[in-house]
Amino acid sequence: MSSTVLVTGGAGFIGSHVVPLLLERGDRVRLMDNMSRGDRGRVAEWVATGRVELVEQDVRYGGAVHRAMSGCDQVVHLAAVSINKSEADPYESVDINIVGSNNVFKAAADHGVRRVVFASSASVYGDPDRLPMAEDDPLDPLTPYCVAKHTGEQLLAYYARRSAMTWIALRFFNVYGPGQKPTAYYTSVINHFVQRLRSGEAPVIDGKGEQSMDFVHVHDIARAVVMALDVDAARANLPINIGTGIDTSVAELARTLIDAVGVDVEPQFRPRDVLVSRRMADISRALDVLGWKPTIDVRTGMQDLVDSEIG
Ligand SMILES: NC(=O)c1ccc[n+]([C@@H]2O[C@H](COP(=O)([O-])OP(=O)(O)OC[C@H]3O[C@@H](n4cnc5c(N)ncnc54)[C@H](O)[C@@H]3O)[C@@H](O)[C@H]2O)c1
User: Fold this and answer.
1) How many structural domains does the chain have?
2) How many angstroms is it from 141 CA to the middle of ligand 1?
3) How far is the centre of ligand 1, averaged over its atoms, from the C-alpha of 81 (Å)?
4) Judgement on whether residues 20 and 69 belong to the same structural domain of the protein
């Protein structure tokens, strides 16, 4: 059944992979984005299909969100400012990531929207005590951004108790892939290594490179978003991890990228005391509830990225 889907922040990195999947399944898309980081060229191509409408507005304005919500059956809420900006400017972060999210969820409940899919984040867990990280593990959000993601999940639960709306919060792990901005917080290390390798220099790793991330390809993220729109209401109203279930250390990443770029160098290790943080998702709930599992492994995904664009 095709829907009219409101996608907030849809002109950004993840949105640019979600919108084509929605169009493929026959939906109409209303994109609400203030274009602070959006890709205008891409949006113009979608608008030309006649099935995408751009509402160039800010989620901080409740009235604008209400108007944009009118006639939509489903919502994908991606608009947010990133974790590093949240430390530099907590006021803006709270405004966009908490007040903005509240505007979106309240309007969705008021307009009879049947499903909201919210871009939450693995950062709600803080530094985990054990791996893999499961949805019922204790949460310890460490920055205003992480607090906002946690609050967003709780606000969804609140509105769902008072309306027909159902929700799924996808806790994305370390998303990478074509279209990512080089400044992306966790994954900037990919861009940094690739830049060095392209000029024939070895990647430099602080400490032993043991800190790890769960790198998940943006195409798999977009698939999860669309699958979360379709899940039966009886199975909704919960957070779901979206990662690969594999932790890749910075040292392994360096070796993977050396192979992908195809240069004959060895990573250099710079002795440092490094706080070793590790990330690895338990993805059993994603399989159980969404029927989702990742399709792109890190080696293939990094090769695809190197071949496609960055640098
Ligand atoms: N990329 C990741 O690794 C990652 C990991 C976990 C969670 N997430 C979450 O996924 C979502 C999408 O992330 P992304 O990587 O595509 O980010 P992005 O910055 O590329 O996209 C965000 C979009 O939101 C828009 N936007 C920002 N503030 C807005 C506002 N006030 N009103 C309307 N639009 C606004 C921007 O113009 C941009 O197009 C975010 O909620 C992010 O927190 C991303």
Assistant:
1) 2
2) 18
3) 6
4) yes
